[in-house]
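Incident review: delayed structure delivery

Summary: a single-chain prediction request sat in the queue longer than the usual turnaround. Root cause was a stuck worker, restarted by the on-call engineer. No data loss occurred. The affected request and its eventual output are reproduced below so the record is complete for anyone auditing the incident later.

Affected input:
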Amino acid sequence: MVLTVDVGNTNIVLSAYRDDARIFTSRMATQATKMEDEYAIMFADIMRLYECENECFEGAILSTVVPQLVTTLTRAITKVCNCRVIVVAAGIKTGLNIKLDDPGIVGADLVCGAVAAKSRYPMPCIIFDMGTATTISALGRDGAFLGGSILPGVRISLHALSQSTAQLPHIDPDSFRNCVIGTNTIDSMRSGVILGNASMMDGMIERYRSVLGEDATVVVTGGMAEMILPHCKTTGMFFDSDLLSDGLYMLYKMNTKS
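Output delivered after worker restart:
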């Protein structure tokens, strides 16, 4: 078995693969203050939950946008799985032609998403990853990583709105009732953040397609995607909740072929 660990600013996603099949996927909160033994206990509990505690792991791969957790999580994974841990970083084989000003700065999460999208979707491709931040990545007709955009995520936007204004409360966007014109503060905030993000996606897709081509495939992933996607006007988008985990598994195979 192979363990993939995708660390975002808000959540850590663990997935286990056997013979190219995903056995389980589990999520936990990212906490930079936890020690390696605390993470090891949490990982072991998840393995036990999915009846994988006695499985033999041939290896693991770690992607993180929280650099201070690299050593902590690598040691925690090693304690639980007793295997080599590959870290997605500069120098790893990706199969991507990264055409940024400095290819070394591309985020590990963007690499994972691009690797999976290039493998399974028609090119050119636009990738939305809607997590703590919303990122947009562009893959050219030949699969080259061309660059992208970074925006505040849905919950970050709401948090900033309530923190920076005296009269706007903290709200839960999950209860949006498809109300375009809010008649109270909370419905107005929900309309703004849900429909505003959906309109942003529609608008950015139009702009990206004007550069990449009107046939550019659109792939959407991330924890906030399912909340926003139903309100987009663009048709034919692909929702892929496991894009990053599958990309990690592809990277593991790519870097252990020998």
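Verification: The mean pLDDT is 93.
Action items: add queue-age alerting; document worker restart procedure.
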